[in-house]
Structures are given as C-alpha cells and as structure tokens.
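Hey,
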Amino acid sequence: MTIRRAIRIIAGSFVLLSLLLASLYNGVVLTEPSWLWFTAFIGVNLLQSGFTNWCLMETILAKLGMKQCCAK
C-alpha cells in the first residue's frame, strides 16, 4: 500500500467517523435529507478509492485535460 492510498483511506474514515459522532452526540439526524449526505458521499468515495486505487474526481479532471503528475 502506498502513502497516497493510505491517506485516502484515513481521510475517508475520518469523514465518516465525524458524521457518526455528529449523529450520536450532537443530535444530527442522518435519516433526514440534508447536506450531510454529500459529506457521506465524499467519505465513502475516499474510502473506496483507497482500497480500489480508482477515484472518480481523478477521472473527471483527466478528461478535462489536467495532467496526472509532474516528472521527478
């Protein structure tokens, strides 16, 4: 596993953990429609991209012409 993939997994886990803690301790109701579902979507995508090494945003940006990486 690379550092890049580990960071995605950790970031996704932290986003989802913050949603869980907000739900448990701050009275946020996750079953009601809200912008927190967007946050959950981002967390799940970060988590899956860490395991699968595929990221939707990378694909979109590549199709828009952004370079993948600079040469070292």
